[in-house]
Write the structure tokens for this entry.
Amino acid sequence: MKQLLKSYLMVLTVVSIAIAVGGCHSYSEQCRVKAERGDVDSQAELGMNYLYGRNDFEIDYQQAFFWLQKAAAGRNPLGMYGLAVIYGQGLGEISPNPIRAERYYRLCSEVIRNRARQGELEYIYTLAEMYYYGRGVPKSRQDAFSLYSYCAERAYYPAITKLGIIYYQGEGRKKNIGRARQFLIKTAEDNDLTAQYYLYLIYDETGRLDVARKWLEKAAAGKHPDAMLELALILAANSANNIGLEGAENLILQAAYAGQPEAQFMAADLTTDLRRAEEWIMKSAERNYVPAMLKLAEILQVDQRGNAAKIMTLYQLALKNDPDNSAITAKIVEFDKLTGLYFPVMFCWQHLKGGENLLLADSGIQRILDGYTAGIKSGSRELFMKELMNNAEAFYLSNDWYRIYQSQLPLTWASDVFVVLEKDKSEMPGFWLTYAIAASLAGQGGSQAYAAHRLSKLAKKQADAAHQSFLADLSVLLKANALMLMRRDDEAYELLFSNGRLDHAHSPFLVNFVNFWCAPLLKDKKKFSVSSGISEQRLGEYRFPVQSPFYDLRLKCVVSEQSLVKEPEVALPE
């Protein structure tokens, strides 16, 4: 009897475990139980379900980040890939971080390739995504389409949804709404939130508004950020006497917390807290929403301590994301008249397009400047060097040499930025351009001549013809200005004259550059005008800087007011 009871209890235990892990429990519960027990594959699967709203899961970026982070820590390639997507797009409360995203893409790409070669559909689909967006591999829409099709033929639902989106958007092939609907209806009925949202777009575009609304509400109920925002806009537009506005505002805030940039911009108007409103605008700008970039630039201009380089950066990033917007171009032209920062910002941000890089440019120098002007000089210097060593990239991208100059701090501080960055940035035109300007402000002609020479060499390597032409003009201006600083006036104008009329003599940006950063050349405006081709009427006032200590990157030492070293020869353009 005891033996029979013992056998019964053993069977009961096995059945209980089976029920806990599978059998009578739903897929989502099974996945969660395994994930909580430390199974990294289940952790990755759970995270991806939350990330995309698949398999009856609502989209929840906080939960997605939690589980994908665990899976990535366990070296699961899908966990690393999903985490990279969150960092790359800045989903939920996670700020965009392209550097961290790229690192995860690199870590997982080879493993994903190998698993895809073994025929695992989930990995084949992920590899297609990587090709489609160029994540960790060279972008190839054709390879991506082939892999999506392979997965779709084997009834892998995420691939079916993606093909529907491709046919709807017409990316890389002719737009086909009928074909798109065929793909999307299948996965939308299986509660794929992205498919539901795109079905809404299709039915809305084709005038079937009742069906469109049904799919939109389904997608919004599953927390699809774009769907929540669209539904909020519809509710707000159709609400009478403020009825329904509360629901619209709640949806906007939910979409904003999910990282939807337009919703974040709108959320700024839903708070009376000015600091919170600015935070929402900043989040939206980081996610490339052009109106937010322009609004943030406007806010910074009102601030008496406004960061001019950051304002110019915001304008230029906005234009990169909306290149046909003439109003933005007008703002840039007008602001450059006040600052002369068009070229310094343009060439420091030459290879960066996204607003997510605004975070990279947050050096925190304002506290350092405030401390120095308040008389805390040694402490400010110590903090400056600490922050510079920790994150020199931020000081470079934010053009902090300009803020150091404006705040009348010693220009050796500005040269310290270039000393730290020389190893990583010496092949970047923006590095030598801004170093040349800073050297000029310190009155160090030898240092500027060396920088101008390096800039002219880099100009010839530019793939973009316009950039090459502008840099050629800038380098000759800087070389001539260096000669003026070394009291070799005649040689300066002869250099300009022998170079020939500047290619961009009529550009307002080049004129502003001269007026702000090459003022010593304006000692004889007539000579300068004749030699450069810039109209004398457009020239500003002559100024000659007070010579001050500055680190010379060629001589590898600080050159002072009374330099005891031989000035470097000025290398003329070939």
User: Anything to note?
Assistant: The CA atoms of residues 116 and 122 lie 8 Å apart.
